[in-house]
C-alpha cells in the first residue's frame, strides 16, 4: 500500500495532455523519497531526467539537458549530425568547424549545431530534479524552465523541496529568505500548474532496509521491532528516509559489537534500539542536537532544580526531543539504555572500541537488572517483562498498604513511576488519582509520625540531587502531576 496513491493518477493525466502549457511540481522534504517515487512512475516511459544540482546559468541548464540526452542513448538517434559523430568530443567538432570555415569561407559552429540537434531530439517528457540545489534564484530558474513549458511544448515535471527554494540557511545556520514569497508565488503561478505533495514511503523503505539485513543477529533482532521503528521515525518529525536508513545501518554495525550477555536481555535491547534511533536521526538531521546535549544526567538535574525552584527555563535541545517522544514510552532518552559517553562515541563520533563499548554497557542501568527491591524493579518497567512489572506493582502496593516505604526519595520514585505506568496504559489509574493517592499516603505517614512534616525546598532539592547522583532519576519528572506530588 503506497503512502501516495494520488501521485500516479495525477501524473498519468498530465502526460496525456498535448502541450499542457504548465509544469507539475512534486514536493516533499529532503530525503522523503520523492525522486525514487517519480522514477518508479517513469519506468518504461520515454523521458529525460535532468539534475539541476549546482547549475548557475541558462547555459548550464542546457548543458545538463544535453548531457542527459547523450547519457540516455549514448549519442545515438539524436539527428543527422549525431550520426556524423555520435561520439565526437567538443574539441573535435570545433576543429571540424574550423576546417569547414577555411574551405568555404563560411563560419559555422558545428559543436553548437550538434548540441542543439541532440537537445531537439529529447523526448516530450522532461523531469528536472534538485531545483533547490541550483545556484540560481527561484525566479531565474523558473524563467529558464518556462522555455520548455511554454515555447517548446514539453511536458515538464519538477522535483523539489519547495520550502528550500524559498529559504536558505546562512553561515550561522539560521533560515533566511532567498527570495520574497510574493515574488516566488508570482513566478511559480506562471510556470507551475499543479503541486503534488508526497509523504515519506516509510513502509517501502523499511521493506528494503529490513529485507537486506546481514546475517548473524540483526536479521533476527530488527524485523520484530518494525512497528516501533516506524513510530520512532514518524515522531522524529524529519520525514527524511535517508536518515532512517543511515541510522539503522549504524545500529546494525553497532549490534555486532555488543557483548552477548547484553544482547541476551531482550527488553533492555529494545530500549537501546529505541533510544539509539531517536538520538541518531536527530543528530544526523544536523540542527537538532549538539555534542553537549548528550549529557543526560546534566539535563535531568537541570530540570529537577528548575522544578523545585519553580523556575521557567528555556528548554534544551534534548528536552525538546524528549517532549517529541513523550507520547511513546519506549523512548527514554535518559541514559539508562545508552549512557552519555557511549552515545557520543557511537552516534556522534561514529565508532567505539571493544573496551569502550564494554565500559559503556557496564554503566547502562537498564542492563544491570536491579531487582533487590520492588520499587527499584518497578523503575525498570521498560526493561523487564510484563509479568515482572505486574509482580513489582503488587509488591509495591503491599508496601504502601503496610506503610513501610518512608524515605522521601523512594516515595517520589514510586508515584512518579506510577504516573509513567498510567501514561503507558499499564496502570489503571488517572494522573489525578495517583496524585491523590500520593498525598493521602504522605499525610498518613505524617499523622502516624513515620515521617516529619513536608520538607523544605532545600531538603527536596537534596532528595532530587541524591537520587539523580545515584543513577536513577525520576519518571514523569516534567509533568505537572509530579510537581504536585
Give a quick precis of the structure:
The protein is 56% helix and 7% strand. The chain has helices spanning 7-15, 34-42, 58-73, 80-84, 90-104, 110-120, 138-151, 162-166, 181-191, 202-210, 218-221, 226-236, 241-257, 260-263, 266-284, 296-308, 317-324, 340-348, 354-362, 374-379, 386-402, 408-423, 431-447, 457-469, 480-484, and strands at 23-27, 48-51, 125-129, 155-160, 167-169, 175-177, 192-197.
Written account of the structure:
56% of the residues lie in helices and 7% in strands. It is α/β, with parallel strands linked by helices. The protein has a five-stranded parallel β-sheet, sandwiched between helices. A two-stranded antiparallel ribbon has the order 5-6. Helix 13 crosses helix 15, helix 16 runs antiparallel to helix 24 (457-469) and helix 22 (408-423) runs antiparallel to helix 23. It starts with 6 loop residues before the first helix and ends with a helix.
**Largest sheet strand order:** 2-3-4-1-7
Biggest sheet character: 5 strands, parallel
How does the overall form come out from the CA principal axes?
elongated
The helix/strand class is alpha/beta
Tally of helical segments: 25
Overall radius of gyration: 31 Å
- Beta fraction: 5-15%
Question: Level of helix content?
Answer: 55-70%
Average pLDDT rating: 82
Low-confidence stretches: 77-88, 92-110
Number of strands: 7
**Cα end-to-end separation:** 47 Å
Amino acid at each position: 500500500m503506497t503512502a501516495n496513491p494520488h501521485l500516479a493518477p495525477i501524473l498519468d493525466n498530465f502526460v496525456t495532455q498535448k502541450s499542457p502549457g504548465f509544469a507539475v511540481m512534486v514536493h516533499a522534504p529532503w530525503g522523503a523519497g520523492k525522486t525514487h517515487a517519480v522514477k518508479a512512475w517513469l519506468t518504461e516511459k520515454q523521458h529525460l531526467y535532468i539534475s539541476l544540482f549546482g547549475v548557475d546559468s541558462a547555459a548550464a541548464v542546457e548543458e545538463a539537458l544535453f548531457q542527459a540526452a547523450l547519457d540516455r542513448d549514448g549519442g545515438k538517434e539524436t539527428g543527422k549530425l549525431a550520426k556524423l559523430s555520435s561520439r565526437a568530443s567538443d574539441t573535435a567538432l570545433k576543429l571540424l568547424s574550423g576546417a569547414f570555415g577555411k574551405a568555404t569561407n563560411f563560419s559555422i559552429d558545428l559543436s553548437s549545431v550538434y548540441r542543439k540537434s541532440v537537445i531537439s531530439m529529447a523526448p516530450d517528457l522532461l523531469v528536472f530534479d534538485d531545483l533547490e540545489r541550483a545556484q540560481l534564484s527561484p525566479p531565474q530558474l523558473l524563467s529558464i524552465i518556462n522555455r520548455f513549458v511554454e515555447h517548446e511544448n514539453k511536458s515538464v515535471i519538477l522535483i523539489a523541496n519547495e520550502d528550500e527554494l524559498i529559504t536558505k540557511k546562512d553561515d550561522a545556520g539560521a533560515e533566511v529568505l532567498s527570495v520574497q514569497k510574493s515574488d516566488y508565488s508570482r513566478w511559480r503561478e506562471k510556470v507551475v500548474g499543479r503541486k503534488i505533495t508526497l509523504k515519506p514511503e516509510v513502509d517501502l523503505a523499511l521493506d528494503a532496509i529490513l529485507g537486506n539485513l546481514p546475517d548473524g543477529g540483526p536479521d533476527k533482532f530488527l524485523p520484530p521491532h518494525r512497528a516501533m521503528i516506524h513510530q520512532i521515525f514518524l515522531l522524529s518529525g524529519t520525514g527524511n528516509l535517508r536518515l532512517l536508513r543511515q541510522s539503522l545501518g549504524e545500529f546494525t554495525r553497532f549490534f555486532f559489537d555488543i557483548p552477548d550477555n547484553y544482547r541476551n536481555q531482550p527488553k533492555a535491547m529494545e530500549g537501546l534500539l529505541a533510544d539509539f534511533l531517536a538520538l541518531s536521526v536527530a543528530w544526523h538531521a544536523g540542527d537538532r542536537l549538539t555534542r553537549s546535549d548528550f549529557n543526560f544526567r546534566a539535563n535531568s538535574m537541570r530540570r529537577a532544580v528548575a522544578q523545585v525552584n519553580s523556575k521557567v527555563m528555556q528548554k534544551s535541545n534534548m528536552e525538546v526531543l524528549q517532549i517529541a517522544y513523550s507520547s511513546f514510552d519506549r523512548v527514554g532518552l535518559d541514559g539508562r539504555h545508552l549512557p552519555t559517553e557511549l552515545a557520543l562515541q557511537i552516534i556522534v563520533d561514529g565508532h567505539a572500541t571493544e573496551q569502550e563499548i564494554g565500559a559503556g554497557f557496564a554503566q547502562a542501568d537498564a542492563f544491570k537488572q536491579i531487582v533487590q527491591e520492588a520499587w527499584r524493579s518497578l523503575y525498570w518497567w521498560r526493561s523487564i517483562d510484563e509479568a515482572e512489572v505486574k509482580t513489582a506493582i503488587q509488591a509495591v502496593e503491599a508496601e504502601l498498604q503496610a506503610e513501610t516505604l518512608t524515605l522521601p526519595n523512594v516515595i517520589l520514585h514510586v508515584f512518579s513511576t506510577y504516573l509513567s505506568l498510567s501514561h503507558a496504559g499499564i496502570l489503571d489509574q488517572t494522573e489525578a488519582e495517583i496524585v491523590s493517592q500520593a498525598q493521602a499516603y504522605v499525610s498518613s505517614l505524617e499523622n502516624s509520625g513515620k515521617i516529619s512534616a513536608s520538607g523544605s525546598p532545600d531538603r527536596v532539592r537534596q532528595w532530587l540531587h541524591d537520587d539523580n547522583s545515584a543513577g536513577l532519576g525520576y519518571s514523569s519528572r516534567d509533568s505537572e502531576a509530579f510537581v504536585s506530588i
